[in-house]
């Protein structure tokens, strides 16, 4: 059962090997214990994209032990906000959830130079998500929840 004092977010992309992994890592890093983070893919890859691992390491975030996970209805049901990143209609929809679609370039098959701008855009969006939902650094939880 999700903690009602925490913002619970699920990031979904097709392979769960790039965009959703970066977003989940940034949210966990920036939100700390004030957030509950999940990521999944509609057709998970075998491993996280090595260029994504390298680009995130440049920001001090280690994704080397992460593995792509399959999208489940339970993951969606357990989340307050579901953010899709190019998974199309593969994400199940449940009433009462907030759904956002972040249009981002796909880092699949790209080198680290191409991944960096995607990473930086994801970081900016995650910071904005935290701000919009009242998750502030140094607070014990979310404002207004």
Tally of helical segments? 4
Major beta-sheet overview: 4 strands, parallel
**H/E order of the elements?**
EHEHHEEH
**Runs with pLDDT <50, length 5+?**
138-145
Broad shape: globular
Quaternary organisation: single chain
In helices, the fraction of residues equals: 25-40%
Total strands: the figure is 4
Q: Structural class from helices and strands?
A: alpha/beta
For the record, give the distance between the C-alpha atoms at the N and C termini, rounded to a whole number: 16 Å
Neighbour order of strands in the largest sheet: 2-1-3-4
Kindly state the mean pLDDT as a whole number?
A: 88
Beta content comes to 15-25%
Gyration radius over CA: 14 Å
Describe this structure in words.
It contains four helices and four strands. The chain is an alpha/beta fold and 145 residues long. The protein has a four-stranded parallel β-sheet with strand order 2-1-3-4, with helices on one face. Helix 1 (19-31) links the parallel strand 1 and strand 2. It starts with 6 loop residues before the first strand and ends in a 13-residue tail after the last helix.
């Amino acid at each position: 059962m999700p903690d009602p004092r925490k913002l619970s977010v699920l990031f979904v992309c097709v392979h769960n090997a790039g965009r959703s992994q970066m977003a989940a890592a940034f949210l966990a890093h920036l939100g700390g214990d004030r957030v509950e983070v999940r990521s999944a893919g509609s057709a998970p890859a075998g491993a996280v994209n090595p260029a994504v691992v390298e680009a995130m390491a440049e920001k001090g975030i280690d994704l080397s032990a992460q593995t792509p996970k399959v999208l489940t209805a339970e993951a969606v049901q357990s989340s307050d906000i579901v953010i899709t990143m190019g998974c199309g209609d593969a994400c199940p929809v449940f009433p009462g959830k907030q759904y956002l679609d972040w249009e981002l370039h796909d880092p699949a098959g790209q080198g680290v130079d191409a991944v960096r701008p995607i990473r930086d855009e994801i970081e900016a969006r995650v910071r904005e998500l935290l701000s919009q939902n009242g998750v502030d650094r140094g607070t014990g939880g979310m404002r207004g929840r």
